[in-house]
Design goal:
The complex is a heterodimer of chains A (about 350) and B (about 325).
Chain A: E1 4-17, E2 20-33, E3 37-41, H1 48-56, E4 64-73, E5 76-77, H2 83-89, E6 94-97, H3 111-122, H4 127-140, H5 146-149, H6 159-171, E7 177-181, H7 189-206, E8 209-214, H8 217-223, E9 226-231, E10 234-240, H9 241-246, H10 251-258, E11 309-312, E12 315-317, H11 323-332
Parallel strand pairs in A: 3-8, 3-9, 6-7, 7-8
Antiparallel strand pairs in A: 1-2, 1-4, 4-5, 9-10, 10-12, 11-12
Chain B: H1 13-16, H2 22-31, H3 40-49, H4 52-76, H5 117-153, H6 155-170, H7 173-183, H8 188-198, H9 200-214, H10 218-225, H11 230-238, H12 244-266, H13 278-285, H14 295-322
Helix pairs in contact in B: 3-14, 4-5, 4-14, 5-6, 5-8, 5-9, 5-12, 5-14, 6-9, 7-8, 8-12, 10-11, 12-13, 12-14, 13-14
Classes of the chains: A alpha/beta (about 350), B mainly alpha (about 325).
Chain lengths: ~350, ~325
């Protein structure tokens, strides 16, 4: 196995609220290697962000709690190390880029100071050294005239520049793992591409593993090496990027791909939305959470969560629909016509 | 590398990107009619400036602080700023023990011991300023630690601190101060300690409210994700973002502390003779009003009223200027 950074097994995170137990993440497993990008996709409320926050141990407790699983960062289990040790991991080993750059910088602290602070927290650097590094980092993420920019406040930065500054802050301590939680959702489309490019560039430079959380399959297609598709707090399918895009096995993945516009479409094809609403995480159905919306639903879907079925190298799916039928259905779906030869 | 200038959303800002010195920035300011976004303080000042009453208050505060500090410096150097000795009686200037009315050499007159009222008012300015500033500083030291801690941690920590604050609110303030002053050693220092200790709850509660809203902001989570400790997050990231209402409370609080001191001095507590404070002068000289010696009472009262008015009108103006809901 290549240089393994992170191994998550059977992660379950629940929120104990007055209304009931919200089962946000249920038995999710994944791994991350050096220089690898894992895309976690799924719609709102599918548990993507909670899974990432569990890694950082930033799930608000109470009411949230990681109830099961092991989170191995190298040889350390992030679930059991002390709070002080965890603070050393945050920012230094695992860094995070947040969704909304407009609100994730402290408005009353100079941008350079915020980056310098991240540096001095984990590295034995003097204030002026950290300040110089902050300027270098800003320059590296593509902010022009960085030495002057470090002296400015966040309100003097545009959205895209703030997200660049957030990336600079995240990479300031050369983390092994970079978690990007919907880093482009709050930005407009032209800026999105740039930010993705910067993340990719930084990943190559620092040889980090990246976990990219998004509901934008376009972004995933661009930079992910492998993809985990989440639904109702569970992994429904995971696999290499090509496997997920060209040989998807789960009806939910089909649905996601079907609702994506294609640029290479010759004829006009209507997008196929997935009908219905995601399940209530407090009262999850006993079986597959997607059963209620699935077109290919079978009686057993409602009773039991299907075991993992390995359908290819590094490609697994949780689905009751038999492989033979899946192949047939996939071949018949309009949006896969292009792939079937 | 992506095309860097695409990064900005606006058209003019593209040029803004290349600003490297303050000088150039001024040029841009001129070019676009100063359309650059204003910082919080610049914006507040701009709106405060239009409020005439607040500016009058600010001027009063500045004069008060300058005079008080000058007097304090003179006092530390072993003398007085005042033209006459404010302590030593001069019975020649107090015929029949009723003082002498304002004259050219004693513009505020002299009191029943023949001391220059103007000189004593100056000494009182120093003492009132010290009471106001130090009492509020003590209150802030307690309130701005307990408030943020209470709001940030929540749970039982919050309950304990806030119920304690409730206890402090529940007692009548002056009564509580009197109670504390009987415990503390007599003297001037006890006054600001007592006022300070008893008014922390206002600042703690005020700040806790803002902390509750700021702690849910994403940049707080981002700071946590960087590995910052709780204390660092509270005092570096949360507290500075919750200060605007506190500044208003400080301005009001200093005015309040000065009146409280005056009330205490009137009751004979705090400043001991022969030192002077405005309240003390009012209390000492009240009996001579019936005999027609109005100046002994009028001048200290006037200064007390004007100063407290200054702090309160400035505080009011500051509140209006920092309130986003009142923005035009």
């Amino acid at each position: 196995m290549a240089d393994r950074l992170l191994e998550v097994k059977d992660l379950s995170t629940h929120f104990f609220t007055h209304a009931g137990v919200v089962k946000a993440v249920n038995g999710v497993s994944f791994t991350l290697d050096r220089k690898e990008t894992l895309g976690i996709v799924g719609e709102s409320g599918s548990g993507k962000t909670v899974a990432a926050l569990s890694l950082m141990r930033l799930v608000p407790d109470p009411p949230g709690k990681v109830v099961e699983g092991s989170l191995m960062l190298g040889t350390r289990d992030l679930r059991t190390i002390s709070d002080a040790e965890m603070r050393g991991v945050r920012g230094n080993d695992i860094a995070m880029i947040f969704q909304d750059p407009m609100t994730s910088l402290n408005p009353v602290v100079k941008v350079g100071k915020q980056i310098a602070e991240a540096i001095t927290l984990h590295q034995d650097k003097s204030k002026s050294e950290a300040w110089d590094m902050a300027a270098q980092l800003l320059d590296r993420v593509g902010i022009p005239d960085a030495p002057a920019r470090v002296n400015q406040y966040p309100f003097e930065f545009s959205g895209g520049m703030r997200q660049r500054a957030m990336i600079a802050m995240a990479i300031s301590c050369n983390p092994d793992i970079l978690i990007a939680d919907e880093p482009t959702t709050a930005l407009d489309v032209t800026i999105q591409a740039q930010i993705i490019e910067v993340i990719e560039e930084m990943q190559q430079r620092y040889e980090s593993g990246v976990i990219l959380i998004t509901h934008d399959l376009g972004v995933v297609a661009e930079i992910a090496d492998k993809v985990m598709v989440m639904y109702g707090g569970r992994t429904v399918e995971y696999g290499g990027i090509d496997e997920i895009f060209y040989n998807p096995h789960h009806p939910y993945t089909w649905g996601l791909l079907g609702s994506l516009p294609r640029l290479d479409e010759v004829e006009k094809v209507r997008l196929t939305p997935i009908k219905g609403q995601p399940p209530d995480l407090i009262s999850l159905p006993k079986g597959c959470p997607f059963a209620g919306r699935c077109v290919y639903v079978r009686p057993e879907c409602r009773d039991q969560w299907p075991e993992l079925e390995i359908v290819g190298p590094e490609h697994g799916v949780h689905c009751w629909v038999p492989e033979a039928e899946r192949r047939e259905v996939r071949a018949a779906l309009p949006h896969f016509q292009a792939y079937v030869t | 590398m992506p095309e860097r200038h695409q990064d900005t959303s606006g058209n003019q800002i593209v040029e803004d990107l290349t600003i490297s010195t303050v000088g150039e920035r001024d040029v841009i300011d001129e070019k676009y009619g100063g359309a650059r976004p204003l910082g919080l303080w610049a914006d507040t000042w701009r709106r405060l400036r239009r409020n005439k009453l607040a500016i009058v208050g600010l001027c009063i505060i500045v004069v008060f602080i300058v005079v008080g500090s000058a007097e304090a410096i003179a006092y530390l150097a072993g003398g007085y700023l005042a033209p006459y000795d404010p302590i030593k009686p001069d019975y020649a200037l107090s015929p029949q023990g009723l003082g002498s009315p304002p004259s050219l050499s004693h513009p505020f007159g002299t009191d029943y011991l023949g001391r220059d009222v103007f000189s004593r008012v100056l000494v009182a300015t120093r003492i009132s300023m010290l009471v106001g500033v130090i009492a509020v500083a003590i209150a802030l030291c307690i309130g701005l630690v307990l408030g943020p801690v209470s709001g940030y941690y929540g749970g039982w920590v919050d309950s304990v601190i806030m119920r304690t604050a409730d206890v402090f609110f529940a007692f009548p303030f002056i009564l509580f101060v009197l109670l504390l002053l009987t415990v503390l050693p007599p003297g001037f220092g006890s006054v600001f300690i007592a006022i300070g200790i008893l008014s922390w709850a206002t600042y703690a509660r005020l700040n806790r409210g803002s902390v509750l809203s700021v702690k849910t902001m994403e940049y707080i989570e981002a700071a946590r994700a960087q590995g910052a400790s709780d204390l660092r997050i509270i005092f570096r990231h949360v507290l500075p973002n919750t200060m605007a209402p506190v500044y208003v409370a400080i301005a009001m609080g200093i005015g309040g502390a000065i009146t409280t001191e005056a009330a205490l001095a009137f009751l004979g507590l705090g400043v001991q003779p022969p030192d002077a404070s405005w309240g003390k002068m009012i209390s000492d000289n009240l009996t001579y009003l019936a005999a027609g010696s109005w100046w002994m009472l009028a001048f200290p009262s006037f200064f007390l009223i004007v100063t407290v008015f200054g702090f309160i009108s400035f505080g009011n103006g500051l509140r209006d200027a920092t309130d986003p809901k009142l923005k035009e």
